[in-house]
């Protein structure tokens, strides 16, 4: 039976106390969930949440990381620091990092390779803006982000990569790509992975959908052939919405 990867990205929300409270709720409510689960609190709450979900079926994720192991990089958080806190998954290339903070493909690729080098799993986010979609550039954008994001990643390391397709116009807007549209882009992502690593690697690659995933639409999205999970934003901030997403079947 297919096992889906359901990940919660809490973004810049939750004090430490609030994060601990939510993590405790999820620990109890999702103890019997059979899907692969991950939550990514803000950096300030990672240590506290790590203590709550250690030895459970919920993985600890980070929302970003710096491109170097250490050094004079004011404001950055290194892969070694994340590992020290029990982080096992890191989200890289999120559209908010790309479009709000100007992170380019070269920087994102450096982070991807560094994370994989240190044994962290990577969720590599790709997606087009509304303008790019309307201009017919969707495939060009997705191809570039995947090819450049995976540059230098050895085939043996690919098992540590999950792709997350998140149309920028659907993130936090309440708009969702139709399941058919999402599945088409997911299938295109597999085509690119097949070109880079072969058909078997493409078949095995988990590809999440992100962009206003809710309890009301998750089952329809997950029913599509090429969708293997969800990267959940706003709906991951409350147990009453994240739990039914994780337990959609």
Short description:
This protein has 249 residues and is of the alpha/beta class. The protein has helices at residues 16-29, 46-53, 79-84, 95-99, 105-117, 130-134, 138-149, 179-197, 199-204, 218-222, 239-246, and strands spanning 5-9, 36-40, 58-62, 89-92, 121-126, 161-165, 207-210, 229-232. The chain contains 11 helices and 8 strands.
Total number of helices: 11
Largest sheet: 8 strands, parallel, barrel
CATH class: Alpha Beta
In the CATH hierarchy, what is the superfamily?
A: Aldolase class I
Radius of gyration: 17 Å
Level-2 CATH architecture: Alpha-Beta Barrel
Q: Which strand order spans the largest sheet, edge to edge or round the barrel?
A: 1-2-3-4-5-6-7-8
Task: Using the alpha-carbon principal axes, give the shape.
Answer: globular
CATH topology: TIM Barrel
Mean pLDDT: 96
Total strand segments: 8
In whole angstroms, how far apart are the ends?
A: 12 Å
The percent range for strand residues is: 15-25%
Helix content, binned percent: 40-55%
Number of domains: 1
Q: Output the helix-strand order.
A: EHEHEHEHHEHHEHHEHEH
* Low-confidence blocks of residues: none
Structural class: alpha/beta
Kindly describe this structure.
With 249 residues, this protein is of the alpha/beta class. It has one domain (5-246): TIM Barrel, CATH 3.20.20.70. 41% of the residues lie in helices and 15% in strands. The chain has 11 helices and 8 strands. The protein has helices spanning 16-29, 46-53, 79-84, 95-99, 105-117, 130-134, 138-149, 179-197, 199-204, 218-222, 239-246; strands at 5-9, 36-40, 58-62, 89-92, 121-126, 161-165, 207-210, 229-232. An 8-stranded parallel beta barrel has the order 1-2-3-4-5-6-7-8, surrounded by 5 helices. Helix 2 (46-53) links the parallel strand 2 and strand 3 (58-62). Helix 5 (105-117) packs across helix 7 and helix 7 packs across helix 8. The chain is globular, with a radius of gyration of 17 Å. It starts with a strand and ends with a helix. The model has no long low-confidence stretch (mean pLDDT 96).
